[in-house]
Write a structure and sequence with these properties.
Layout lengths: L10 H11 L17 E5 L14 H6 L7 E3 L5 E3 L2 E7 L2 E6 L13 H12 L13 E6 L2 E6 L6 H4 L28 E7 L3 E6 L12 E6 L3 H10 L4 E2 L4 H4 L7 E14 L9 H10 L2 H7 L5 E3 L11 H4 L15 E7 L5 H15 L2 E7 L5 H6 L4 E7 L8 H8 L13 H12 L4 H17 L2 E13 L3 E2 L16 E2 L1
Parallel strand pairs: 1-10, 1-11, 14-15, 14-16
Antiparallel strand pairs: 2-3, 4-5, 5-7, 6-7, 8-9, 9-10, 11-17, 12-16, 12-17, 13-17, 18-19
Keywords: Signal
Protein name: ABC transporter substrate-binding protein
Pfam family, one: SBP_bac_5
């Protein structure tokens, strides 16, 4: 992971950030009664649904180590024990054995009935948590086990149950139509207070079943402005800072910055159903024209990784399984006119589009750009309105497994198939990957599916993004998690 060089913040920027920060961290206690220091965290996005675990807010609960799931994932993406200690599959049914001695933050015990309640609420929610999209799942408690049954045989059930959106909470969380996680988790920190979209507080839970947290608590402030988050780290008002913008990173002390590879790939999708890129030789010409290292250097200031495939360094097993590809020879564009679409919501993409325009025009294409907000361009992208589309795409979604992303984006029946790809060899490889049991065999099948997609040149991966995290000098044990599921753990403390 790359460390960044330090510079001084311009006076005007510092003044602006100071105004933004006024009152953000005021009154936040640094030291608890037992002498330990509470951890002050500046997070980018405020809650969107009152911290309901059935939404993306669940990832905040996970990053604060307050809500837990039956299983978690190791670095390879394989399921390992958490609230469940063991599991086994029999056809469509998986049986999970629960950990003994676990209590919720309100003092009630973790039981099979509690797990059934939480998972059933998720499975019957409208809309469902994203991890259960298209999955028909039922749960039944029996003694110290729960059985999870799906409509079709699903080798990914344990990985699905690792999603923070399927956290197990106490009965008190489900008293109304919404789900309230305050005081209802099982993790080393107990959520005690949520102040709307401005802040949240957590205290150490001394009844935790695992390792006791080293810090007495966490004080979270939501700071959407990136300059203000960077200023909070610089001024010492925050101990851990999420998602520092590239523009601010070089202004900070290099020893406070860590760049974490993300499971996110910036890809140029080429429309294969109609227009210029129905010709595989012209798709190959576009692929050959793209200088991805120049984009990484010029647009991302070197703070991204040049793509070697659709899956990047956040999946450390991927590159070692790849073999050389047989590629179609490029044809001659001859001035062929194409329109490239992208969106403004991710600040770098319009500049990426301009760089691609120059590279493709140099290769002989005539290129027009169309840039809008994502909400106003997604439907056109999916309907095939553009010859090409630039997208920053998460590659492992919620299960920690990339097969779902590959199917969604490149299967002939995929729901997010911007390239409109319909290739029998790709479909066959994707089906095999989806059906293969987890572990080394599935990883090899996934890479074979990736190779089948790349051989069509329907998608040209350019780079893999990184997230920049700030940790103050006294912080020890903060997590740097590519999946953004962990941040403050039981081992995190401020010395």
């Amino acid at each position: 992971m790359r460390r960044l060089t330090a510079r001084l913040l311009p006076v005007t920027a510092l003044a602006s950030a100071s105004v933004l920060l006024t009152g953000c961290f005021a009154g936040t206690p640094q030291s608890a009664a037992d002498g330990g220091k509470r951890i002050r965290v500046a997070m980018m996005n405020p809650p969107r649904s009152g911290l309901s675990p059935l939404t993306d807010d669940a990832f905040k609960l996970s990053r604060w180590s307050t809500a837990e799931t039956l299983v978690t994932l190791d670095a390879e993406g394989d399921a390992v024990p958490a609230l469940a200690t063991a599991w086994q599959q029999q056809g469509k049914t998986w049986t999970f054995t629960l950990r003994d001695g676990v209590t919720f933050h309100d003092g009630t015990e973790l039981t099979a009935q509690a797990v059934e309640r939480s998972l059933t609420r998720a499975a019957t929610a409208s809309p469902k948590p994203r991890i259960l999209d298209g999955v028909d799942l039922t749960v039944k408690a029996s003694g110290n086990t729960v059985t999870v049954t799906t409509a079709t045989e699903d080798p990914l059930v344990p990985q699905r149950l690792s999603s923070p959106q399927l956290s197990i909470l106490a009965a008190r969380a489900y008293r109304g139509k919404t789900v309230d996680p305050v005081g209802a988790g099982t993790g080393p920190f107990r959520l005690t207070k949520v102040n709307g979209t401005s802040s949240a507080s957590l205290d150490r839970y001394d009844g935790y079943w695992g390792k006791k947290a080293k810090a007495p608590g966490i004080d979270v402030t939501f700071v959407p402005d990136g300059t203000a988050r960077a200023a909070a780290l610089r001024s010492g008002e925050a101990d851990i800072v999420e998602a520092i913008p590239v523009s601010q990173a070089a202004l900070l002390d290099q020893d406070l910055i860590t760049e974490v590879p993300m499971p996110r790939t910036n890809t140029l999708y080429l429309h294969t159903e109609k227009g210029v890129f129905t010709d595989p030789k012209l798709r190959a010409a576009a692929r050959a024209a793209i200088d991805a290292p120049a984009i990484v250097k010029g647009v991302y200031e070197g703070r991204a990784d040049t793509a070697r495939g659709l899956l990047g360094p956040a999946l450390p097993w991927a590159n070692g399984l790849r073999t050389p590809l047989k590629r179609t020879a490029p044809g001659k564009p001859g001035g062929a006119a194409i329109t490239i679409g992208t969106f403004t919501d991710r600040a770098e993409l319009p500049e990426v589009a301009q760089t691609l325009q120059q590279q493709l025009q140099k290769a002989g294409f005539t290129v027009k750009l169309e840039v809008r907000e994502y909400a106003n361009i997604e439907s056109d992208a999916l309907s095939g309105a553009f010859d090409a589309f630039i997208l920053s795409r998460a590659t492992i979604l919620d299960s920690g497994d990339p097969a779902a992303y590959l199917y969604s984006d490149f299967a002939s029946q995929g729901s997010f198939n911007i390239s409109q790809l319909a290739d029998p060899a790709v479909d066959k490889a994707l089906d095999k990957a989806a059906a293969t049991p987890t572990g080394d065999a599935r990883r090899k099948a996934v890479i074979a599916a990736e190779a089948a997609v790349l051989a069509t040149d329907a998608a040209v991966p350019m780079l893999h993004e990184r997230v920049i995290q700030g940790d103050a000098a006294g912080v020890v044990g903060a997590a740097h998690d590519p999946r953004e599921r962990l941040l403050v753990t039981a081992d995190t403390q401020v010395k």
